[in-house]
Amino acid sequence: MKSITLKRTEKVENIKIEMIDFYNEATEDYEFWSKDLNMHFGYYSPFKNNPFARNTMLNEMNNQVLKRLNISSEDKSNLIDLGCGVGGTMRYALKKYKNLSAVGVTLSNFQVEKGNELLKGKKGTIVNENYNHTSFKSNTFNVALAIESLCHSGHKKESLKEAYRVLKPGGRFVIADAFLKKEESKLCYGAQYSHRRLCDHWSLKNLGFISNVVIDLENLGFKNVKVEDISFRVAPSVLHVPFTIVGFILKKLFTLNSLKRESLHNLKGSFYALLSGLHMKSFGYYIVSCTK
């Protein structure tokens, strides 16, 4: 029994190391995806943004998440971004709310260095920490967000518990991410294959089952848990994936640069994200909001 536990621990640690290497090496590739280095999919609002202008949709996702945090425009507030990348969402938030300060956490040294360089002169900083176990005191932040980051830990209860701990009473928490609509064991073969390949190439543990995530949030003490399926709002940005892949490869060929192993994984992961999205009965993209 002890050997089985050790093997599981070793596997989790290997996933963690692989994820750090992935983001240390592949983060720069996201500049091709987003000029603002938003490392997530977008939100399409008819008549508000252009489905052919990817960056406007990516920033609209930031806007939609921030709207659900109910950040005060008068009182000072502080925000924590759990899995912040190079701080694209933080920079958007700090520009929108002048009374806001922000902290982001990431395991990638490259993202810390690059992100803090981009945040210079702003009320934000990025630290090298694990969002499952941060060094912040309990009841520190007014609001917390996680955009396409908790999937790296499988949306597990441990991650949600840490968000609850660092939030002040009455604080808001918003997650925007892809989730399973049913238990992984109940997925059809095609959906299971897409899910496993997606996780392998993007260094994810797995996608959480949305119903279980809601139960975990409520059991931890979160109130007013609201789940919104925004799959069709996200779909236009997902459809940019094949064109982005082709464009990125052509750019590398024309500049005589070889594709890094991490870049290749990133491209394959993007393809399987698109493939997973076609299994609409098995996968969905949600915004989950709640209050401590």
Strand content: 15-25%
CATH names the topology as Rossmann fold
CATH homologous group name: Vaccinia Virus protein VP39
Largest beta sheet: what is the strand line-up? 3-2-1-4-5-7-6
Q: Order of helices and strands, N to C? A: HHHEHEHEEHEHHEHHHE
Number of domains: 1
Structural notes for this entry:
The chain is globular and about 50 Å long. By secondary structure, it is of the alpha/beta class. The protein is built from eleven helices and seven strands. The chain has one domain (10-291): Rossmann fold (3-Layer(aba) Sandwich). The protein has a seven-stranded mixed beta sheet, sandwiched between helices. It has helices at residues 2-26, 30-33, 54-69, 88-96, 109-118, 157-166, 189-201, 210-220, 231-238, 241-254, 261-277; strands at residues 77-82, 100-106, 124-128, 141-147, 167-180, 223-229, 283-291.
Q: What's the gist of this structure?
A:
This protein is an alpha/beta fold. 47% of the residues lie in helices and 19% in strands. A seven-stranded mixed β-sheet has the order 3-2-1-4-5-7-6, sandwiched between helices.
Write the SSE topology:
Elements (H helix, E strand, L loop, with lengths): L1 H25 L3 H4 L20 H16 L7 E6 L5 H9 L3 E7 L2 H10 L5 E5 L12 E7 L9 H10 E14 L8 H13 L8 H11 L2 E7 L1 H8 L2 H14 L6 H17 L5 E9 L1
Parallel strand pairs: 1-2, 1-4, 2-3, 4-5
Antiparallel strand pairs: 5-7, 6-7
Features:
292 residues, alpha/beta, Rossmann fold, 7-stranded mixed β-sheet, 11 helices, 47% helix, globular
